[in-house]
Amino acid sequence: MARKQSDYLASLLAEEVSADAPAKPAPVEKAVPLPPQDEPARASSRAGLSLLGRENALARVASGEVRQVTQLLVDPSRVRVWGGNARLQSKLSEENCRDLIDSIIAEGGQKVPAVVRHVSGDPDHDYELIAGTRRHFAISWLRAHSYPDMRLLAQVAELDDEAAFRLADIENRARKDISDIERARNYAAALDLHYGGKAVRMAERLKVSKGWLSKMLKAAALPDDVLEAFANLQELTLNPAYKLATVMDDPRRAKAVSKEARTITAENRMLVDAGSPALLGSLVLKRLLAATASPAPEAPRLSLEVQGPLGRPIVAVKGVSRQGITLHVPMASGASDEAVVEGVRSLLASLRESGITVR
């Protein structure tokens, strides 16, 4: 994690203790060597110094100069995942957590603690997981596969939902295994939940640019059926996702993109079932952006006519506009005037059936 991000993360955890800047560490006083004495006297002196040091340490904790961090080893089944977490829990698997599982086995346990908070009113859980879903999954998997004594190392923090969201977000920024789409959707949900729908306020709190946040929120609008076309969501990064979401603003294009996405999803399913890799995200994106709506069928041209006794048109409708109806009476049709008039009446009746009237 970058230094700036780690400092921001530390500041979030520190908010629960005090809004003031931490005091400067007190200088460490060196003990003055005591003159040689007999053994009982030396023991008494050591006890006195130990007691004094303990009192000083407790005083520093009480004053806020030193902050105590509570870390526990807990059963992961007693820890529920917070709903505001960005990661799609359904996407976690032994395969994509294999590196972490192997690392925990090799090191004899988890080294980096997850962040949790206390919950109440839930008989099945004691804590709620704010950050560390892969660690939670890995420990749970190990307990179910030959390592029943493994427990989740967790740091307990007192955080409201908005602070929990910011803490989880700053940790997720340093992780490559969380897709931009997962984060974008997490941002979209948090916008209304924590910031009253005000993107400017959200950008200030997260310390990100308004333009970047706007792109993330736009990308979050991509529907599920389009996202399912990508076998690996990490291949759909922010800029392409934003471009695709912009295309979806056109209802006709959106329909065509969704149709192509369903086709790609079916193709990927068949490829995987046959033991072949799914389509690359770059190819999927190219096909989705190339999907266009079928041209709208042209309205049938109104070409009504009445034929005479010789099989030739005696009167025909050539056009209909706001100004009126244009009729064409051909020469040398062989029809009488009465037949032409009757033909006009017939055409007017047909037009009325089509919703066109001269009244």
TrEMBL record:
Belongs to the ParB family. This is ParB/RepB/Spo0J family partition protein. CDD domains: RepB_like_N. Residues 19-45 are annotated as: Disordered. It holds the Pfam family ParB_N. GO terms for cellular component: chromosome. Residues 72-173 form the ParB-like N-terminal domain. GO terms for molecular function: DNA binding. GO terms for biological process: chromosome segregation. It comes from Novosphingobium aerophilum.
